[in-house]
Amino acid sequence: MKNFIKKGGFLFSFSWFFLQYPVEAATDTVSNTSNNDAIIVTGTREMHKKIRDSLSPIEVLNNRELLETGQTNVTSALAQLVPSITQPAVGQFVAAPTNFVSLRGLNPNQTLVLVNGKRRHNSSFLYIDGFADAATPTDLDLIAPELIDHIEVLKDGASAQYGSDAIAGVVNIILKSDNHGGSARSQIGQTYAGDGLVGQVGFNKGFKIGHSGFFDVAFDFRHQNHTSRDGIDSRTQRHSLKVVGDPMATRYNLAINAGYDFGNGIEIYTTDSYSHRNSEVNQVYRTADRFPEVYPDGFMPIQKLSENDFSASLGLRGDNALGIHWDVNSTYGGNFIRNDLDKTANLGLYAATGSTPLSVHLNNYSTTQLNNTLDLSKELALPVIYSPLTLAAGFAHRYETYKTGAGDPASYLYGGTQARTGIIPAVAGSHSRNVYSGYLDLSAHLTKRWQVDLAGRYEYYSDFGSTLNGKASTRYDFTDQFALRATFSSGTRAPSLANEYFSTLSVGPDSASGTLGANSAAAKLLGAVSLKPEKATNITAGLVYSCLLYTSDACRRIRRCRSR
């Protein structure tokens, strides 16, 4: 749980399994073998690539490892298991419900999240509080944890391979593809401080479709109460400030992963998810003298967010087209947020008219992404190199939209409502862009012990132009246990549409502050210029040592030791 590590707490959990085979056999393939022998699909276009042979640093975490952390969301589990992943201990204000990861200390916008190797859409809300300023990260809390088989974390720049947002690395979430068996799990816990009660329950079940298909479904429910980690309010000498901490949130996730093999190496597959979340976020307490006519004891506005999130992916792949492995996919996803404010007041409106609503609608935010991809790869046997050359190429089109909706007039007229003001119609609007890209990737063992991987990617954005990125990786294995590897790459992160057009105004007890979209007319009057892509150069090098240690327990489990 998010506050257990920092604040301490207790956690009671129980799990049960309904399986069509013994528990030992139900363990996924990643946990039944050495982690060094796990097959990876992230950071490489080669088939059957093992983690111990990777040219880049990568972590593989299976479902059991994630569950054994005792965390009730994926983000906290990753932060506990992977040292290079961090998340804020507590959030504050509007974007606090969003659960994101920061890789290698960089902004969460610079970590690309994939699901089954396909780009996942980001949140529609721009994070404007805390260390993730200006981020519109992908919310991992909206991916059903019960359906996750394992997660691959690539800790290296990969813009040349995957495009924008992969400057810090890639988190690739691989879902279960079982045609039988299942599991269920429930947890409940609370901090020692007496707040933050969390309850979670989830299950997944696999079904067989015909002779060679599978249908894996998962449902997850999670509720969390408020936590507060504020100090004494100097105005009241009490704990009247309750803005630093976790919001109250109730979340439902439903997801499926399915596929059918037609034979001859051709398979159709789909991954679909829907999530709904209600959140209540505390705002700064207003003292009793602020509006005694209605709130004689003072008041604390509460921001209420209702969020819907979906993703639908459909693809067809095969490997019998002249020896070419091909994959055609279309993925459409979106995030939609309704933002309201309760226990508030518009003091300017009250002074002018003698009345004010105590609850208002502030705004709506929505973002969608349509990703269409074609990936091709083929192994070519060449006489001058040790192994076949893996030649991979691909093309992609992405259509992105971002929309903001205006709030009630009472939320912005006469100075607006306390804590947050609504979006005015002049700022609200709908925006979109197209992104086209193509990549080329070459990889091979030039000798038995020397590997090389070269990749390049071109992207064109309809709103600001083109980018070109490259990556060169090499690895030399001096022995079966000891190797040296290095990577040089360039990276690009394009500004999101929310970065370009998001606007908001916050009204504090004694001040007001706001954020203007860089492309808005108001910002340009103040001297703002249009945003440009972030560019990065990544250089990594490391030593790799791996060994296998066999234990004598009943399961003959293989443990790994590894250093980099």
Describe the structure in your own words.
The protein is built from nine helices and 28 strands. The longest helix has 8 residues, at 74-81. The protein has helices at residues 4-7, 23-26, 29-32, 63-68, 74-81, 159-162, 347-353, 497-501, 521-525; strands spanning 9-17, 39-40, 49-50, 58-62, 85-86, 102-103, 111-115, 118-119, 148-154, 169-175, 182-191, 198-209, 213-224, 248-263, 266-282, 302-321, 324-342, 360-380, 389-405, 419-421, 429-445, 450-461, 465-477, 482-493, 504-507, 512-515, 534-550, 558-563. Strand 27 and strand 28 (558-563) form a beta hairpin. The radius of gyration is 25 Å and the shape is globular. Mean pLDDT is 85; it is low at 1-34 and 550-564. It has a 16-stranded antiparallel β-sheet with strand order 1-11-12-13-14-15-16-17-18-19-21-22-23-24-27-28. It has 564 residues and is mainly β. Helices cover 8% and strands 49% of the residues.
Condensed summary:
8% of the residues lie in helices and 49% in strands. The chain has 9 helices and 28 strands. The chain has helices spanning 4-7, 23-26, 29-32, 63-68, 74-81, 159-162, 347-353, 497-501, 521-525, and strands at residues 9-17, 39-40, 49-50, 58-62, 85-86, 102-103, 111-115, 118-119, 148-154, 169-175, 182-191, 198-209, 213-224, 248-263, 266-282, 302-321, 324-342, 360-380, 389-405, 419-421, 429-445, 450-461, 465-477, 482-493, 504-507, 512-515, 534-550, 558-563.
